[in-house]
């Protein structure tokens, strides 16, 4: 049985074995005035222009060519952000965003992944960054949001450590070019999702089925690249704010049966701990350490560990696990029992965000953190009045922002909340069929229409920032 990331989350996010958290109030005054408010996007999902201005081929281009996108669409045009970035920045400014996390496209900047640099790719991000700064918006650049250059995948991709050097070189190129204007840098986006769904379950590019060892190798080699990139940027920009972004979820057993408990512990290791323990502790989780030792070399854990300044967290739901032989780590997903679901079939569980924030506070010494992604797809449409009424998404954002406020009140070192996503976009293996944006994109005309969720979010940001 094949599961995409979104299908996984629909199945994984069942109610936790722990008691449900109490409803949290939403009060804009609870947030510091310098709190980061905005949205996140990724280059591949919004830019389009895949064959424009010297961009190289990446693993998602190949995955699409293989006919593996559910609705048969592609990201060739997507939102055409490459040509319409000024319009999109204007939407951010109108909503009083003070931060925007976007990704730099590795194949647009270094088309082969290593070697020759593409000046036109650098020029595009110069234009975008300057536009953001002119609008008073902090550019938060992420180096890698899944668009691995195909030539590097042909050499083994994240299954080998050979990617580490090219990633460090790419990080240096970006820091030298944009570091005079970008002071906040994220290395990777969701290395756990890359590893599990790209190398373990086939549902994301590059689409390999390499089981547990393939997953653990991809996690470890991303940890090495991440540590290399962090050091590369620190050497160029000693005062920059450095971090990375991972998807986090509380992992709980479906029952108290020993086999379900073990499945939850193993999944927690793969989903949360290999990344976080590697980065923040320089350790391997005990439960998977024996599996990982054959490919962990001397000095690897020291390289993976780095004192980040800001940790980005993506949250979409809980992972409730049960013993299921034949699945990676013998872990399957329990039946969701929530009362509400998104248009993807995901249970809506905002209290799980509070739970994982408190867990990270306890386990990792309360590092500076921000929500780098949080959002939901719903089947919203343009109404006869020309507006997009999306009350479910509006409530979803309200409830999750309330959990961030609750965490702040309880001492979690939270620095921001960025919604996923600014725009409806190319939703990976689902293509253009699922809409996560607070701004609707008509894929025929490329017209942008702010949804009611955008309007509420903008109003709340104004209150929170005291504007």
UniProtKB/TrEMBL annotation:
Ranked from the top, the taxonomy reads: Bacteria, Pseudomonadati, Pseudomonadota, Alphaproteobacteria, Rhodospirillales
- Recorded protein name is Beta-glucosidase
Extent of the signal sequence: 1-22
Broad class of enzyme this protein falls into:
hydrolase
GO molecular function term, any single one:
beta-glucosidase activity
Against InterPro entries, the record matches this protein to: GH, GH_1_N_CS, Glyco_hydro_1, Glyco_hydro_1_beta-glucosidase, TAT_signal
Which residues does substrate bind? 45, 145, 189, 316, 420, 427-428
What's the catalysed reaction? Hydrolysis of terminal, non-reducing beta-D-glucosyl residues with release of beta-D-glucose
Q: Which organism is it from?
A: Magnetospirillum moscoviense
Similarity section: Belongs to the glycosyl hydrolase 1 family.
Cellular-component GO terms for this entry: cytosol
């Amino acid at each position: 049985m094949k599961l995409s990331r979104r299908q996984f989350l629909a199945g994984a996010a069942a109610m936790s074995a722990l008691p449900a958290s109490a409803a949290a109030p939403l009060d804009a005054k609870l947030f510091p005035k310098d709190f980061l408010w905005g949205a996140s996007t990724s280059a591949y999902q919004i830019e389009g222009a895949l064959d424009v201005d010297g961009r190289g081929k990446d693993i998602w281009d190949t995955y699409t060519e293989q006919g593996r996108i559910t609705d048969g669409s592609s990201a060739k045009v997507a939102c055409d952000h490459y040509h319409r970035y000024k319009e999109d920045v204007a939407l951010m400014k109108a909503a009083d965003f003070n931060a925007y996390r976007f990704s730099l496209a590795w194949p647009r900047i270094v088309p082969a992944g290593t070697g020759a640099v593409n000046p036109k790719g650098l020029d595009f991000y110069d234009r975008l960054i300057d536009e953001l700064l002119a609008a008073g918006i902090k550019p938060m650049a992420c180096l890698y949001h899944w668009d691995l250059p195909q030539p590097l995948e042909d050499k083994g991709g994240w299954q080998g450590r050979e990617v580490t050097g090219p990633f460090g070189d790419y990080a240096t190129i970006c820091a030298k070019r944009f570091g005079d204007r970008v002071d906040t840098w994220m290395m990777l986006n969701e290395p756990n999702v890359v590893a599990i769904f790209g190398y373990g379950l086939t549902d994301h590019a590059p689409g390999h089925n390499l089981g547990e060892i393939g997953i653990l190798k991809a996690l470890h080699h991303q940890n090495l690249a991440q540590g290399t990139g962090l050091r590369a940027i620190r050497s160029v920009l000693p005062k920059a704010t450095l971090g990375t972004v991972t998807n986090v979820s509380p992992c709980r057993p479906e029952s108290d049966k020993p086999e379900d408990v073990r499945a939850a512990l193993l999944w927690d290791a793969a989903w949360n701990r290999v990344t976080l323990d590697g980065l923040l502790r320089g350790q391997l989780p005990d439960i998977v350490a024996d599996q990982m030792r054959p490919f962990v070399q001397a000095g690897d854990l020291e390289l993976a560990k780095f004192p980040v300044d800001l940790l980005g967290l993506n949250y979409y739901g809980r992972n409730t696990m049960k013993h299921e032989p034949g699945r990676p780590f013998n872990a399957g997903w329990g039946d969701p029992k929530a009362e509400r679901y998104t248009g993807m079939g995901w249970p809506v569980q905002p209290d799980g965000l509070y739970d994982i924030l408190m867990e990270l506070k306890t386990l990792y010494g309360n590092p500076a953190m921000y929500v780098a992604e949080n959002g939901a797809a719903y089947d919203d449409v343009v109404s006869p009045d020309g507006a997009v009424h999306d009350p479910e998404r509006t409530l979803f954002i309200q409830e999750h922002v309330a959990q961030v406020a609750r965490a702040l009140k309880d001492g979690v070192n939270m620095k921001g909340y960025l919604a996923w996503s600014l725009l409806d976009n190319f939703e990976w293996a689902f293509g253009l069929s699922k809409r996560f944006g607070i701004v609707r994109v008509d894929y025929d005309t490329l017209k942008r229409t702010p949804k009611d969720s955008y309007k509420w979010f903008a109003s709340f940001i104004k209150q929170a920032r005291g504007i």
